[in-house]
Amino acid sequence: MGIIATLIIGLLVGIIAKLLMPGRDPGGFILTTLLGIAGAFVATYLGQSIGFYRVGEGAGFIGAVVGAMILLALYRAVAGGGRRD
What is the distance between the alpha carbons of residues 64 and 10, in angstroms, rounded to a whole number? Predict the structure, then answer.
């Protein structure tokens, strides 16, 4: 898969993860894209560790969304992206 396709899929995955986890996030467009791309890597690594995927096999779209949601939850915990009054 080309780098442009990876970036587009990462963007879509990041947007879907943010839609599924409502709340204010201290990030914008670039962070959303990076979150989606990293989510795909996290899902691939965890899936290979658990045995869902073989070595060299990447996570699917849903797995990438789940990975991005995990990273978003961690990011919110670290960056304090929760509700501020």
Answer: 8
